[in-house]
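User: For a benchmark we're assembling, each entry needs the component sequences followed by a predicted structure for the full assembly. Here are entry 17's components. Please fill in the structure.
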Amino acid sequence: MSQKSNKVTFADNVREVVRRIPKGHVMTYKEVATMTGRPNAYRAVGNILAKNYDPNIPCHRVIKSDGKTGGYNRGRNNKAKMLKNEGVL
DNA sequence: CGTATGACGTGCA
DNA sequence: GTGCACGCCATAC
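Assistant: Structure for entry 17:
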């Protein structure tokens, strides 16, 4: 645990948090930022995901505070559709 | 080290 | 209700 010699950067934290999001649940960038400890760094959160979106990370479960899907793969793909497919209204 | 960028958020007109 | 501009944080170059 605890990252000893491993440098945990904001990106690592964000990825971990996003990966912890259960199916049928979505979080806003601000929420994720708050979970990482930087409630005002929602900007960095989007930046991290934007540059380091992994296939194991449901970044599509991360939406905007407006309830909009925001973006996924540098685009909009069918984020809203896939979310609905998972059980997110 | 400084600048630029980015999948955002909020406020105001 | 919609559109524009500014602000914030971290990473990359």
